[in-house]
Amino acid sequence: MLLAIDVGNTQTVFGTYDGSELTEHWRVSTDPNESGDSLGLMYRGFLDLATIDGICVSTTVPQLSRSYEEFARRYTHAPLLELGPGARTGIAIRYDDPREVGPDRIANAVAAADRYGAPCIVVDFGTSTNFDVVSSDAAYVGGVLAPGIEVSMDALFARAARLRKVDYVEPETVIGKNTIASLQSGVVYGFAGQVDGIVERIREELGVDARTIATGGLAELIAPHSATIERVDPFLTLEGLRLIWERNV
Fold first, then answer.
1. Residue 84's Cα: distance from chain center in Å?
2. Is pTM beyond 0.70 here?
3. Given 17, 42, 170, 171, which is the most exposed site by the fewest CB atoms within 10 A?
4. Are 106 and 60 in contact (CB under 8 A)?
5. What count of other Cβ atoms lies within 10 Å of the Cβ of residue 58?
6. Closest CA to 174 of 191, 188, 163
């Protein structure tokens, strides 16, 4: 059984694979101060670690790399592969410095190219909203980074004393009749418009109508209101980790 772990700045998504089938999955908050022991206790509460024979991890929190090494060594008998320089991904990475690319972005590109074909664009709604581009010859060629939905709204609430946090849900109408509905409309339609504007410009630059796939925690909220997102794939990053694991063992 493979344990695939996507450690983001805000949330960690992990799941188990039996062959190519995602059998279980979970989402928890990321704590950058976790030790190997605390990770062991946490994961032991979700699954039987004795059944794990491989671990593939992507982390955007560098200080957790050593903690995951300790977790794998002390609590499992499974080899650990951390996605980073030297890992075989199966795709060319055409970036000025490939070491600067977040490993989750590479995993998304690998999975999207495999599942949906090239060219394609991945929009990942996380702490930042990432746009990652796979060219017609199935190479990762870069992308766009924008402030994420929750980060943007937290900044607004921190600076506007009369505004308060709202649930991230679709409003009944675009024109809000109260402050809560107005904020919700801004979230849904503002970020859908951002996605469409950026994707259209990427497609113009590529010179092809690249298929666009959304992933991440708030993808289901924004995608129905976007004219360019064609598919939501909530576990795209985990699928990329699975494929990269298979290409390295």
1. 16
2. yes
3. 170
4. no
5. 27
6. 188
